[in-house]
Automatic annotation (TrEMBL):
Listed EC numbers: 2.7.7.56
Domain of life: Bacteria
Protein name as annotated: Ribonuclease PH
Subunit structure: Homohexameric ring arranged as a trimer of dimers.
Limits of the Exoribonuclease phosphorolytic domain: 1-130, 150-214
HAMAP family: RNase_PH
Assigned protein family: Belongs to the RNase PH family.
Gene: rph
Binding site for phosphate: R76, G114, T115, R116
Biological process per Gene Ontology, one example term: rRNA 3'-end processing
An annotated Gene Ontology molecular function: tRNA binding
Function statement: Phosphorolytic 3'-5' exoribonuclease that plays an important role in tRNA 3'-end maturation. Removes nucleotide residues following the 3'-CCA terminus of tRNAs; can also add nucleotides to the ends of RNA molecules by using nucleoside diphosphates as substrates, but this may not be physiologically important. Probably plays a role in initiation of 16S rRNA degradation (leading to ribosome degradation) during starvation.
Xref: SUPFAM superfamilies: Ribonuclease PH domain 2-like, Ribosomal protein S5 domain 2-like
Length: 229
């Protein structure tokens, strides 16, 4: 894998924040607390964790127009932010959170492949620190709400070999591209896999799964180091 780092408390105002780096992919994740749930969850006793995702105009080689300028989000953006939200909710007890909402904003500062996996992995730390902020104010119990770690990694088949944590050049030329979201205890939250050319075999899929398992275990270990530093 590329070098991975987490810089906590990056944002002065957010209840939780983390600048996550996967090599040259840098994503700022901020967690914001609202002391009320979405309208459809009111009086349910449950809270909600959701996510928003975006890329800054010069996160890539050429300037991209801001989606706000076009008046709507693209399909890719919507798909990624839903993935981030699903991944984080998989390790949250929404009843223990109570009638509150936490929004994880994931803003890509610099992109070099794997922005969604970096966002999920860094988003977990921002969520953790938001819940820790709440616990310090007797609003919730961190260990009651956050049930496990969650991390994500990309894997693929590039030049006939199974590889992990693809950068842009590898990703753009990969024969198979996949993203794996897994918990700290090894549970699988989501798998996204696509053959870009010839279909991939079961054996190739299992080799990617083995890489992803080892990779997410390493990421969870780094998350643990970061939150105890």
């Amino acid at each position: 894998m590329r070098k991975v780092s987490f810089e906590r408390n990056f944002s002065k105002h957010a209840e939780g924040s983390c600048l996550v780096r996967f090599g040259d992919t840098h994503v700022l994740c901020t967690a914001s607390l609202e002391e009320k749930p979405p309208a459809w969850l009111r009086n349910s006793g449950k809270g909600w964790v959701t996510a928003e995702y975006g890329m800054l105009p010069r996160a890539t080689g050429d300037r991209m127009k801001r989606e706000a300028a076009s008046g709507k989000q693209g399909g890719r953006t919507q798909e990624i932010q839903r993935l981030i939200g699903r991944s984080l909710r998989a390790v949250v007890d929404l009843s223990a959170l109570g009638e509150k909402q936490i929004t994880i904003d994931c803003d890509v500062i610099q992109a070099d492949g794997g922005t969604r996996t970096a966002a999920i992995t860094g988003g977990w730390i921002a969520l953790h620190d938001c819940l820790k902020w709440m616990e310090a104010r007797s609003m919730t119990k961190l260990d009651k709400v956050l049930k496990d770690h969650v991390a994500a990694i990309s894997c693929g088949i590039f030049a006939g070999q199974s590889v992990i944590d693809l950068d842009y050049l590898e990703d753009s030329a990969a024969e198979t591209d996949a993203n794996f979201v897994m918990t700290g205890t090894g549970g699988i939250v989501e798998v996204q896999g696509t053959a870009e050319g010839a279909p991939f075999s079961q054996e190739e899929f299992l080799s990617l799964l083995a890489l992803a398992k080892a990779g997410t275990e390493e990421l969870v270990a780094l998350q643990k180091q970061a939150i105890t530093a």
